[in-house]
Amino acid sequence: MTKTLGVLLFDGFELLDVFGPLEMFSMLPDDFAIRLVSQQAPVVAANGGPRSMIDDHFADNRHYDILMVPGGMGTRREVGNDALLHWLATAAGRAEIVASVCTGSALLAKAGLLDGRKATTNKNAFDWVASQGPKVHWLRRARWVEDGKFITSSGVSAGTDMALALIARLCGIAQARQVARWAEYTWNEDGTDDPFALGSVD
Prior knowledge:
Blueprint: E1 3-8, H1 15-26, E2 32-38, E3 43-45, E4 51-53, E5 56-57, E6 66-69, H2 75-78, H3 82-94, E7 97-100, H4 104-110, E8 118-119, H5 126-131, E9 137-138, E10 144-147, E11 150-153, H6 158-171, H7 173-182
Parallel strand pairs: 1-2, 1-6, 2-5, 6-7, 7-11, 8-9
Antiparallel strand pairs: 3-4, 10-11
């Protein structure tokens, strides 16, 4: 059965946070239907300028089996966006799986969704993200972290590893490895193997 993957976009999202994972999911079109979601805008500009056309808006009230939240400089603004945080809490409550890449975990934390859970984020913004969710058990050394239906990943490229871990969870490890081969991507299969932890700057 095809699962609908909704990806939240906001001005200043990080390109690879979104399109690295989506490249992996898009290789399995029978398993995943991808939708880009924003608050109101028909197009949303990424950090660096390129714009993406939106499929859905908050007012459409669509259900997403998987909800993914990217990071990027725009998260610094969106942690103060009550409408976005309310939508995020509602959409996450309906979703089977909720994922974040990089500083996207700050939005999940600010919405109260990660309280009492383990999570991680970009090492270069770790302290700022952690300040958005003081009740979260933040793990500094992790490529990605799974806690129930929530899966959070470290900085930027870690989202692609996390996406493959989700594909493994939903479709089997053999399928995830096949997707990585199709993409000619070297997948770090161990979420605890974090080569960037020691070089973090907080």
